[in-house]
Amino acid sequence: MTSTFHDVSTIAHDDGTPVAPAPGTVFQVSHLSVSYSSVLAVDEVTLDVPEKRITALIGPSGCGKSTFLRCLNRMNDLIPGARVSGDVRYHGEDLYEPQVDAVEVRRRIGMVFQKPNPFPKSIFDNIAFGPRVNGKRRDLDSVVEEALVRAALWDEVKDKLKKSAFALSGGQQQRLCIARCLAVEPDVILMDEPCSALDPIATARIEDLMTELKREYTIVIVTHNMQQAARVSDMTAFLTTEVEETGARVGRLVEFDHTEKIFTNPSDPRTEGYITGRFG
Q1: Of 39, 96, 158, 218, which has the highest C-beta tally within 10 A?
Q2: Is 165 a member of any domain?
Q3: Residue 247 belongs to what domain range?
Q4: pLDDT at 1
């Protein structure tokens, strides 16, 4: 598919001078806010997502973690009444520029959801679906094999590629969904609580897989499991919910730093309170 991204100006400082992305920065998010039917859900989030690292989003339910994640590949476009403001730059380019093709955005920036969602097709056809939609007809066997190898699933399914994907276990289905994402050669993988429906053994397999994948991909993960964030991520963003004078609950970024610092020496007492279980 031909790229529809365009060169655009970088974000500017208050004095008008441009701010270029730092080397190795994939997403440059500035003053991002999201509303649903005029109700503010996420307010003024600013952070940079580094390349080929795992960035975890943690915080109590309703703080806007998944809403923020969906902004990174324009999935909120599909929600009626959703409105996104602020800047989301991908390798310095504005993801929300009118000329940018949202379908191409979602190809480059894939997503794995909370519950495994294989298509009602064979294992092979699940993986081949994306490449076929993108016009690839040749060498699908090698594409499918490579994706399954990268998702650490090939040895378990190589002799049953024609069987239904629903015959796989929950953990295998989630790795199949990761392989399906990898088959279209993304740059970034977004994961929205990918282990919440899995048992501890399957969760460990997914965590090991994430660690392997970050050698080639940038990963952003939403997780309620703070131990998981501490185990697998390089950077952690803590969001919380604040109650406005009107009574409305709004998600805001409290702190974003290296994971080790967030979990051992956080700068904000609200972060410490959440991590130690005093609230949230």
Answers
A1: 218
A2: no
A3: 11-117+187-275
A4: 33
